[in-house]
Amino acid sequence: MGLNIRQKIFLSFILVVLVSAGAVFTIYANSVRVTELSAEITHQNVRSIVLAQTMLQQLLLSDWAVSQYLLSGDPSWVNMSYKAQQSFKDTWREVKALATDERKQDLVTKVKTQYQRYIQQTHSVVQRFDQGLVNRQHQQYFRGEQSVLQSIIEYLQTLITLNEGQLYTRLEQAEKLKRWNQGLSVGVVLLVTLISALLVFILNQNIISPINRLMDGVRKFANGNFAAQVPVMSQDEIGELSAAFNIMAKNIRNDRQKLTALTITDEKTGLFNYRYFKQTMTEEMRRAERYTRHLSLVIMDIDFFKHYNDTNGHAMGDLLLKELADLLKEAVRETDMVARFGGEEFVLLLPETALPIALKLADNIRLRIQNHVFPMEEKQPNKDLTMSMGVASFPAKNVLTPDALIEKADQGLYRAKKSGRNRVCK
Q1: Where are the domains of the chain?
Q2: 375 by DSSP, 3-state: which?
Q3: What is the pTM (predicted TM-score) of this model?
Q4: Alpha-helix runs per DSSP H in 192-203
Q5: Mode of pairing for the β-strands spanning 295-302 and 345-351
């Protein structure tokens, strides 16, 4: 096992004490200070940044889980939301313990106050949903507490920015100490023997260079590069600190990737979820309006899906949804977007597509589904598993918003259901 930092400095002190005890002591003191600054940077500011970003992730996860509960009615989403809320509170306590100045303490207190309001409002929405006071048909999660949620996000982002500023200040202090230490080392080299020159070389190779690499990794991390890694060149404290930094950065990167995938995909089908679809549709509608392009929407509903679930069980119903989702992904174009709308409904967003072409594409998909052999479809009322579809396009009369486009396509779906199912209507 290699020497640690203190042992290396002590050995260097023994070598140089014969010629310049005072110079060696100064170099030692500054080297320790640089090490302490590096440890302080990683423990306090970087930890505060990581915890604040974790709280953002937990907050978004809780909000997403509640929206999924309003879409599906599955109580497991409520449990996921409560777990995320508890994790948020636990992380908040750590952030509070690291808040060493008045401004940070004030931000942490504001986060707690707003979060308590958010929790109360969220519980109120869940209770109203359980009492049947929330309209299921909209399949959306519009709440008055969005301003509270945004306030929490802004406070956390302010806290991250404040920690980043302090992080840069401490990095500059460490950089100044390093430069001063290097200058002093050069001075010692001019005054002492070959032993002093060897001491400078040892200190540079074993302390200064690793600290430079560590600070470079910390800068990249603070700027949002979560793929940043620091080479581990020794087994001393700096080596351990670099290894711990690498593990922390890797875990955060993996967690962010998992959270991103979790927040935009539907768990049962692997398709995009309603929230991500609505966001994409809003952007596409703005683009279509800006450049005078067509945008079409298809809402698809499985015919007699309740009968399928009641006859074959919900487990088979879930498998059917997954198989149907895979079939839809194969049937659409690369530029199209297919998502789960909720329950047994799916949506297809068709950029650069006028209504006649959208009707033809929808009918081709309908025929493909009709001709596909699904498990247990012979038990369906018409001995086949089919889908009804409603199609709408933008621009069109009275279609000025994403909600209006959805409503227009939903009216087409209603006509398809009323006129016998297994058909496409506009």
Answers
A1: 5-264, 274-425
A2: coil
A3: 0.45
A4: 194-203
A5: antiparallel
